[in-house]
Design a protein that fits this description.
This protein has helices spanning 12-21, 34-46, 61-72, 93-112, 137-145, 148-151, 165-189, 205-211, 216-225, 234-245, 263-269, and strands at 4-8, 26-31, 50-55, 77-82, 120-124, 193-199, 256-259. The protein has a 7-stranded parallel β-sheet, sandwiched between helices. It contains 11 helices and 7 strands. Helices cover 47% and strands 14% of the residues. α1 packs across α10. The structure holds nicotinamide-adenine-dinucleotide. Nicotinamide-adenine-dinucleotide (NAD) binds next to α1, α4 and α8.
């Protein structure tokens, strides 16, 4: 038996993190598109990692439980890397809420019930949630603590109250950060930690869909005019994840880390301010 790393979302960010921390572990990679899970598993196995792949959908509690059970056949669940998600140009408001918001909440809850002592997890949120206005204490608490099965019944999360897919994505990512705070308390009772990372524009197939989508110019302007002057890479996200998942991160839990080349700073206080366009 080995320590198990559960990787959900077989995209670039997930793979970069799993490669950074997964040596010596059994990595079980799940993705809604089995071909993505298999492709990532093959690349990683060719590089010496021990990987099994599985079709799974984080927006189904049943699928999440089966995925965890598959992991447990190989050993105790020591790490979670959740990099499954859909973006505003790829999906409908309903799909974004079901996958990015509800699915993440279910996954954190289910893994939090079984993670081993000393275990750790990261979930990928987004800078998008950081540029939305404050929602207030009442909504924040609901996003953090409402039972998963009630989340999508909240009035402010009903699709008829959400103007577009970008807003749905921002709400989902804000929810991820709040959920991580509440889950950190429960994971802590098991001696485990959970954090989130909020990347800015990271070049991956998901971001390329955004560059080629209706908000393409907006995104290209964002990375050109942010302090770093470029988009980021999945490996730079893995730098942060390595700290959060490893022993150097032992005092970090329930926290969110913005890694966006300064785009959010510029959105509030620099040339990316909406009014200065
Ligand atoms: N790339 C960026 O610029 C960027 C920025 C901020 C946040 N993010 C977030 O990072 C995460 C990973 O994105 P990425 O850029 O690596 O994209 P990616 O497209 O490379 O990978 C995402 C993977 O998630 C899978 N997936 C989608 N829905 C799923 C579901 N319901 N269950 C299981 N798997 C599912 C997809 O099939 C895909 O393989 C997402 O949550 C995304 O919102 C990305």
């Amino acid at each position: 038996m080995k320590d198990v790393l559960l990787l959900t979302g077989a995209g670039q960010i997930g793979m970069a993190i799993a490669r950074r921390v997964g040596a010596g572990m059994k990595i079980v990679v799940g993705d809604r598109k089995i071909e993505n899970a298999r492709r990532t598993a093959k690349i990683m196995m060719d590089a010496g990692f021990d990987v099994a792949s599985m079709e799974m959908d984080i927006s189904s509690r049943d699928a999440v439980r089966k995925f965890i059970a598959e992991g447990q056949r190989h050993g105790e669940i020591a790490m979670l890397v959740n990099a499954a998600g859909v973006s505003p140009s790829q999906a409908s408001t309903e799909d974004i809420l079901r996958v990015d918001l509800y699915g993440t909440a279910v996954l954190l809850e289910e893994v939090g019930k079984v993670v081993k002592k000393g275990g750790a997890g990261v979930t990928i949120s987004s800078q998008s949630g950081h540029r939305m206005e404050a929602l207030g204490a009442e909504k924040d608490e609901l996003l953090a603590c409402a039972p998963c099965e009630k989340l999508l019944e909240l009035d402010f999360l009903r699709p008829c109250n959400i103007p577009d897919t970008l807003r749905a994505y921002q709400l989902a990512k804000r929810c991820n950060v709040r959920r991580v705070m509440a889950e950190a308390v429960k994971w802590g009772e098991r001696g485990a930690r959970i954090n989130s990372i909020s990347p800015g524009i990271i070049v991956t197939p998901l971001a390329l869909d955004e560059f080629n989508g209706p908000r393409g110019d907006f995104y290209k302007n964002m990375f050109a005019r942010c302090p770093a002057g470029r988009p980021g890479t999945a490996d730079e996200v893995a730098n942060v994840a390595e700290l959060l998942l490893g022993p150097q991160g032992a005092f970090i839990t329930g926290a969110d880390f913005l890694i966006d080349g300064g785009a959010t700073a510029s959105f509030f206080y620099g040339p990316l301010r909406p009014e200065s366009k």
